[in-house]
């Protein structure tokens, strides 16, 4: 009889032990964040690797190499966007890695505060340049794969802190300077450093370890909107010569 009692007692003890044992759960996935320390203030970006894995990996590669340190926001259009990520203080383009495939069809929209890949006429020509949307620019979203005009621009992150700094950059006066006919902030807004939050900051001398391939398209995109029936509507012009905005 005592042996029969031992079996249920043993089972009860094992179940009680299992109930007291804490469950091991995987840590929550945290999207990477990048801090841009600029001459106008700090901007913190949150990236979306689940929606734009190629674009995020490409951007983080440049950040970790120290590529962006010493580059400028060379294009600012109030009510539209602020763009940078390629040109030095002398407005000379840095050498970049090979272009990446566009992820503009990832379902993300070019809303205010989002960050997207800048590119040339070819949808798959994005390298290091990026832009921050100052307003909801849904006209820049993916509309179809018929051409570069309908492909749109790939959103891969958003500003989570420092949008006031972005707005301050957009409020600066602009001028023609170097290879650009207009829209260059005055004074120049320099990205003094860029780092992944939680990681060791990269070396500040980005030019000392130049990536392999030269920039093949330095045209500023997306195209500046033009007035139409009293409102700004997106238009697409014939690609300009390299080094000049459309």
Q: How is the biggest beta sheet arranged?
A: 9 strands, antiparallel
Report the CATH topology name of the domain at 33-197: Cyclophilin
Approximately what portion of the residues adopt beta-strand conformation? 25-35%
| Protein structure class | alpha+beta
What would you give as the CATH superfamily of the domain at 33-197? Answer: Cyclophilin-like
Task: Give me the number of helical elements.
Answer: 4
Low-pLDDT windows of residues: 1-19, 205-220, 226-246
The count of β-strands is 13
User: Ends: how far apart?
Assistant: 92 Å
CATH class descriptor name of the domain at 33-197: Mainly Beta
Residues in helices, as a percent range: 10-25%
Please trace the helix and strand order, writing H or E for each element: HEEHEEEEEHEHEEEEE
In spatial order, strands of the major sheet run 3-11-1-2-8-6-7-5-4
CATH architecture of the domain at 33-197: Beta Barrel
Mean pLDDT, to the nearest integer, reads 81
- What radius of gyration results from the CA coordinates? 24 Å
Q: Which outline best applies?
A: globular
Region (Disordered): 202-246
InterPro entries: Cyclophilin-like_dom_sf, Cyclophilin-type_PPIase_dom, E_coli_cyclophilin_A-like
Protein name: Peptidyl-prolyl cis-trans isomerase
Organism: Rhodanobacter glycinis
């Amino acid at each position: 009889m005592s042996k029969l009692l031992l079996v249920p007692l043993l089972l009860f003890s094992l179940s009680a032990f299992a109930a007291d044992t804490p469950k091991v759960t995987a840590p929550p996935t945290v999207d990477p964040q990048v801090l841009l320390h600029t001459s106008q203030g700090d901007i913190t970006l949150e990236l979306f690797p689940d929606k734009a894995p190629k674009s995020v990996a490409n951007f983080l590669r440049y950040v970790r190499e120290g590529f962006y340190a010493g580059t400028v926001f060379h294009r600012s259009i109030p009510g539209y966007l602020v763009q940078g990520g390629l040109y030095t203080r002398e407005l000379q383009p840095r050498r970049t890695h090979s272009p990446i495939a566009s992820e503009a069809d990832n379902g993300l929209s070019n809303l205010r505060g989002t960050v997207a890949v800048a590119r040339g006429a070819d949808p798959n020509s994005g390298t290091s340049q990026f832009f921050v949307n100052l307003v909801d620019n849904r006209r820049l979203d993916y509309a179809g794969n018929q051409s570069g005009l309908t492909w749109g621009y790939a959103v891969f992150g958003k500003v989570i802190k420092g949008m006031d700094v972005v707005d301050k950059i957009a409020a600066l006066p602009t001028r023609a300077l170097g290879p650009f006919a207009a829209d260059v902030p005055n004074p120049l807004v320099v990205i003094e450093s860029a780092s992944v939050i939680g990681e060791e900051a990269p070396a500040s001398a980005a030019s000392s370890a130049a990536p392999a391939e030269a920039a093949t398209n330095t045209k500023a995109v997306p195209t500046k909107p033009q007035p139409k029936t009293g409102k700004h509507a997106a238009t697409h012009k014939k690609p300009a010569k390299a080094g000049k905005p459309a």
